[in-house]
Specification:
The complex is a heterodimer of chains A (about 270) and B (about 280). With about 270 residues, chain A is mainly α. Chain A is built from eleven helices and no strands. Chain A folds into two domains: about 55 residues; about 210 residues, MetI-like fold. In chain A, helix 4 packs across helix 10 and helix 8 packs antiparallel against helix 9. Chain B folds into two domains: about 200 residues, Rossmann fold; about 70 residues, no CATH class. Chain B is built from eight helices and ten strands. Chain B is α/β, with parallel strands linked by helices. Chain B is globular, with a radius of gyration of 19 Å. Chain B has a six-stranded mixed beta sheet with strand order 6-7-8-3-9-10, with helices on both faces. In chain B, strands 2-1-4-5 form a four-stranded antiparallel beta sheet. The chains are: A mainly alpha (about 270), B alpha/beta (about 280). The complex binds adenosine-5'-triphosphate (ATP) and magnesium ion (MG). Chain B: This is ABC transporter ATP-binding protein.
């Protein structure tokens, strides 16, 4: 009995939250060192493969190409083109998805009307719609932005809807007994309570938009990171393909981090379990 | 099963709260489950009622009906002569599960109802400050609920309910999560405000001691179906003091309530008034 109690207390005093800051800081540095070591090891292995005669460019070759395309502005132009498409499509998709998701979660009638369409079209990969939109909208900017819009919309609408229907009933009751009417409950309880869900949806949506833009450019575009790789493929220009792939990766990572940061800022009130 | 009540009886007229033949059923695997079965109860103005009973006997259900958050399957609750059809500003509710808004600080939580009532920022802040101090959370006024212990959360919920100044308090095990010291302190405060500002209180608890210490009358409920088993008058004078807890009268009352709750026997109370009406 006493033994169990002592052990329980011992276990409590070593929970991560109680760890001394010094230990945590040390851990942090160690993690960072391991991160860097892992990246360097990866590059070395890559180098090894290229020396061993695999048909891939060496890291140095890729670095040289990167310097060239940064110098002559090609990379910047391509980045700008891709990024613009993503941001417009993503912004529009999110902007439409949030109110639609709220509608679905708040009004059963709206849910019954909208849900079948959302569930059906959600299962179609946005890329599969490209042939259709090219026929209907031509090969300008609109079809690409539209496809990205779809990708962002479906990711965000579902999670917003989930957020609204999972708002804790007792919080709504608490607001009601404190005098709130439907409108007040919506603004002061439902919106903040579903923010974490919306932000997760936005992150997924951004990832989907990014994946979609590159693929869309591979199929039909004159500029952008995807289009550049498509052209490089024709000339067996592997270093250019590598530079663009890395750029896509870094940019995707950066955007995800920005959203993650926003998420932590806006939803820091959540109890982590 | 269904008992009809005259629109107004003398007792119901005098009562601040009148529960009239309230039945609440839930569908449980295709069968009707009686969370409350024909419960009737009158609470006089300024009365302090405590409700005790085994887990699942419908205490929270009864409170939700009084709060206007749940509609009874049959029967009705009447407050100030009006049939309850929703929440009202005269009824303050403290929930069993804190129900704090996790994205708001303690201060903003306490100000929530004041904002709904349309008070200005300055007035809100002053009022909130007063009640936060009352429950001893001044140091944590700007903390988020996730940084509070269970007992502190509950104190914040109490401050939030008090802030809108309701004349009826419906409290669902409000002190359940508190340590003995804070609990006694808040019991004193509750009795103080109750005797000074005259409120009508319906207080749910599973603590027999607390039930007797606070109440004019202790309502003992029984489960399956949820019903009132007995109502025990506590004729100890107010203000209640710590010494009273040790008095033989108190002990006798506590034993009576204890037996009613845990053995569901009335014991010495065999002649007490029946509380559930059977048609
Ligand atoms: N929404 C619901 N659906 C089905 N059954 C319910 C629902 N709410 C309550 N019940 C049932 O009604 C009964 C009474 O519940 P209630 O919460 O009122 O009990 P309680 O007396 O407050 O118990 P405790 O002391 O554990 O808080 C329980 O058996 C419960 O299972
Ligand atoms: Mg309960």
């Amino acid at each position: 009995m006493t033994d169990t109690a002592t052990r329980a207390m011992a276990a409590q005093s070593t929970t991560p939250a109680r760890k001394a800051p010094k230990v945590r800081a040390k851990n942090h540095t160690l993690m960072l060192v391991l991160n860097v070591a892992s990246v360097i090891a990866g590059i070395l292995i890559w180098w090894g493969f290229s020396l061993a005669g695999f048909r891939i460019p060496a890291p140095v070759e890729v670095a040289e190409r990167a310097v060239t395309v940064i110098g002559d502005g090609t990379l910047a132009t391509d980045l700008a083109a891709s990024l613009t498409r993503v941001l417009i499509g993503f912004a529009l998709g999110t902007l439409v998805a949030i109110p639609v998701g709220f509608l679905m979660g708040w009004y059963p009638v709206a849910r019954a009307l909208i849900e079948p369409w959302v569930q059906f079209f959600r299962t179609i990969p946005p890329l599969a719609i490209i042939p259709l939109v090219i026929v209907l909208l031509g090969i300008g900017e609109e079809p690409k932005i539209f496809v990205i819009f779809l990708a962002a919309f479906f990711a965000c609408v579902i999670s917003t809807f989930q957020g609204v229907i999972s708002v804790d009933r007792t919080l709504i009751n608490a607001a009601r007994v404190l005098g709130s009417k439907d409108g007040g409950i919506f603004i002061r309880v439902v919106v903040p309570a579903s923010t974490p869900f919306i932000l997760v949806g936005m992150r997924v949506g951004l990832g989907a938009s990014w994946a979609t833009v590159v693929a869309a450019e591979l199929i039909a575009a004159q500029n952008g990171l995807g289009a550049r790789m498509q052209q490089a493929q024709i000339f067996y220009d592997l270093p250019t393909i590598f530079v663009n792939l890395i750029a896509i990766g870094i940019l995707g990572l950066l955007m995800d981090r920005i959203l993650l940061f926003t998420e932590n800022k806006l939803t820091g009130w959540q109890e982590r379990r | 099963m269904i008992t009809t009540y005259p629109a107004s009886t003398e007792a119901a007229d005098a009562a601040r709260i009148s529960v009239q033949g309230v039945t609440k059923t839930y569908n449980l695997a295709g069968k009707e489950f009686f969370a409350l079965d024909n419960v009737s109860l009158d609470v006089a103005d300024n009365e302090f009622i405590t409700v005790v009973g085994p887990s699942g006997c419908g205490k929270s259900t009864l409170m939700n009906v009084l709060a206007g958050l749940d509609k009874p399957t049959s029967g009705q609750a009447v407050v100030d002569g009006k049939v309850v059809s929703g929440p009202g500003p005269e009824r303050g509710v403290i929930f069993q599960q804190y129900a704090l808004f996790p994205w708001l600080t303690v201060r903003k939580n306490v100000e929530f109802g004041l904002k709904t009532a349309g008070l200005g920022a300055k007035e809100r802040r002053e009022k909130a400050e007063h009640f936060i101090e009352m429950v001893g959370l001044s140091q944590f006024a700007d903390a988020l609920p996730k940084m509070l212990s269970g007992g502190m959360k509950q104190r914040c919920a109490i401050a939030r309910a008090y802030a809108v100044d309701p004349t009826i308090l419906l409290m669902d095990e409000p002190f359940g999560a508190l340590d003995a010291l804070t609990r006694v302190k808040l019991q004193e405060q509750l009795l103080d405000t109750w005797s000074q500002e005259k409120r009508t209180v319906v207080f749910i608890t599973h603590d027999v001691d607390e039930a007797v210490y606070l109440a004019n009358r202790v309502v003992v409920m029984a489960a399956r179906p949820g019903r009132i088993f007995d109502i025990i008058d506590v004729d100890l004078p107010y203000p209640r003091t710590e010494e009273m807890r040790l008095s033989p009268e108190f002990t006798a009352l506590r034993n009576r309530v204890w037996h009613a709750v845990y053995h569901q026997t009335t014991g010495a109370a065999a002649g007490s008034m029946p509380s559930t009406l059977t048609a």
